[in-house]
Amino acid sequence: MATVSFRHATRTYPRTERPAVDALDLDVADGEFLVLVGPSGCGKSTSLRMLAGLEEVDSGAILIGGRDVTDEPPKSRDIAMVFQNYALYPHKTVEANMGFALKLAHVPKAEIARRVSEAAKILDLEPLLQRRPRALSGGQRQRVAMGRAIVRDPQVFLMDEPLSNLDAKLRVQTRTQIAALVQRLGTTTVYVTHDQVEAMTMGDRVAVLKDGVLQQCAAPKTLYDCPVNVFVAGFIGSPAMNILTGQVVDGGVRLGSAVLPVPRDHLVRASGGSGRVTLGFRPEAIELAGPGDGLPVVVTVVEQLGSDAYLYSKLAGESTEDPLNPSDVVIRCDARQAVEPGRTVWLRVRENCLHLFDPATGLRVAS
Amino acid sequence: MATIIPVHVDLPEARPGPSRRRGRGGRTSSAGPLTYLLLIVTTLVSIFPLYWTLVAGSHTNNEIASTPPPFLPSADLFENFALALEQAPIGTAIVNSVIVAGCVTIGTVLCCTLAGFAFAKLKFRGNGFLLALVIGTMMVPTQLAIIPLFILIAKLQWVNELQAVVLPTLVSAFGVFFMRQYLVQALPDELLEAGRVDGASTIRIFWSIVVPIARPAMAVLGMLTFLTAWNDFFWPIIALTTENPTVQVALAGLGTGYVPQRSIIMAGTVLGTLPVLVVFVVLGRQIVGGIMQGAVKG
Amino acid sequence: MTIASDNPRVAALAAPLSGQDPDSRAAPRRRRSRLTRNLWGYAYVAPFFVLFACFSLYPFVYTAWVSLHDTSLSNIDAAQWVGLSNYQKLLHSDFFWNAARNTLTIGIISTVPQLCMALGLAHLLNYVLRGRTFLRVAMLMPYATSIAAATLVFAQLFGRDYGLINTGLEAIGFDPVNWEGGRWSSQIAISVIVTWRWTGYNALIYLAAMQAIPNDLYEAATLDGASRWQQFLHVTIPSLRPTILFTVVVSTIGAVQLFGEPLLFAGNGTTTGGASRQYQTLGLLMYNQGWTNFHLGQAAATAWAMFLIILVLVGSYAVIGRLRARAER
Question: How many beta-carbon pairs under 8 angstroms link A with C?
Fold first, then answer.
């Protein structure tokens, strides 16, 4: 049994007002791969460090395998951690780095050697065992850091942005390897990242944090399809969801000088009393329609990706000259549909792909 | 005082960054002949007095005063060595200086590494105040401590005993500061955390993680401390007499006693200076590096 | 198969139960931090601070106590409380003012040219040079030479009758100088010793700071059309300002304490600093009071006066530095 639970866990750094992590409640099932994601300063690393025992818990509790470890030092929590900068001991060989924890736990030498070589085989580190970290490439160091965690066969893996120091190509490759490895080992894993693509591709579930508060914890698909509020909606997905607030009118919502057609029954609940509503729709949920059909926008910038193209556009009638905010709506379309900047296109949102939020609270309105 | 705090200790091991570019910028161009000339003159001025010690140590007063003066040492040097050894206990002094400087070096490096680590990486109540206190004492003149120290060692009957010189010299505010500055940037917090997650005790973390990383700085501090302790003058001359001297006390005795031939004083100076100069020439590159790396930067 | 506790369903039920417990006490509370190793910090600094307390802090305070007493080296326990009279005597003592003046003049003529030369030398050493290491080691040799050895050699070089310098002066037609006898000549000679020992060391410190200046700055200055000399003035010197301040502070502290060079320069072991005290420094005066005349109280007062002088000087540097920084803002 190696579940992990945060129970109202709170951490306030000395001399700060706002908690870095505010009453976090989270349960990770045995063998689950949970990703903590959020912008920098959202408290995701602090949460992980609280779980590791490297950070105080001011109130609340943390449980590993049902045991309250809130006041336990890291070494009695049976966890292994992969650090952002790997934190390999520079003066120890790869072998000694991987075996250090076992040596401290008085595991017999033969057993250490066996487990280290086993892990080295899995991670393809065998020829490097006698090298020192300085003589390794970034990717190799990353694997040694993984190996150091695997060798211990802990109850929980903790990973703090372990891929952020790799170049883009290696990051994608290693991402898959880690996911496969952890799945094979079946060990509960808590993984911190600021990269929502990493979060979506790796996690069984993803927990989105903002300002120390948990926003939503759900499977990647759920986060994408049903974000609970405007923040999650904007954070998950790339390019980000288009989010616009407008006035409810007959037949749709007025954005700028035109109206985006929206089925009437949705809007009644969404607008509350104010008559205003926040709309969210993803770039990939937009269809280009014929002239005069749908919401007119003026294209300002076109990004060609080969297969697709992104059209950055302003609502028709707005100034297109503002260089700091060149775009209200991003459209993803087939590369062949791309138009010249300055042209006006008319867009519609696909059926069931429109998200409605309360403009006052930012919360999702069930549709 | 706060203005001199940003010491930046930067040993090559500490930072894996790219090697410094040697471009065509203002400071990296090749030196012209005038530069070489000036540097060679400076080098000669730096070395000449030491060379002259050899020359003067092997000639009588009148030979030195003749015009032109002799510019090569003569074989009389060895005779004068023997005379100097008769006049002053330089043999004992060298042994004593090795003992004193050795003990001071080991003790200082150990204490300063421990304290420097604590100031760099551990949080404890009052650490800021204590560090300020340490830095502040760098401004206090030696003179301020010697009267009570003298009374203390007189009461302990340590006058003329080597421990009277060793113990007070162990206190090195500079060393603590030096080690702190090095460890602040050479020892990532993550490494200590990795040690804790791996289950290392605090003492184990110190020996297995901190010391190996601090080693280059410890070596530099050791060399500088040895040099300083060997050359220390003010306190030894008060705590010791020529009966049980360090090299500096013996040289002072030689210089202030009545010796008709200056050549004997010079021969004694050669004897007392040679050991440390030999060490200096052998380790010169490391010592130069150490001083430059320990240098204060913005 | 009757062992109940092995039943997975029982275990599954038990787990949430044990999880309930901490939940119920989740009311906000400040924990005493048990995880950070608060007390270990003290353990690590303890060895240093025990020594520090015994051999630095206690002596400083005790010196203050002694300075308020009439004490002699031969009879320490019979100290008599005299209040501030040691300080009063000091302020009315010609010897003290003479020593203070000497310390100041020697301090200036040994420090100012020394640091300027070091700066120039560092600039030269910063070129791409053959035999770089040799040059640096050679320039640091004086630093490795002890005060005693250096002073003995220079006392010989500056000797009135047999000294090489006078021999040289005579050879080119000047009169020999009685270096030790005159006020200015003796102070210059002592300053030469100090300068000789420390110039190379300070040059290396400046050099280290120069090498830390990013090359981009020079490249940018070159593109802006700055000449070598303008680059030195507008890039090098401003970047070096904290380092220069540091060396000035360190040199000042050293200059106020100057002791070994004037003690050994005379060559006869007197502590008066020349027949008419022409090069007696504060450090030497204090030694003279305590260990030649056995007036420990007087010596202690002098020592505290030296400390106060250092504090005032360093304090004024700090103020000047701050004013400059404010003016530039």
Answer: 52
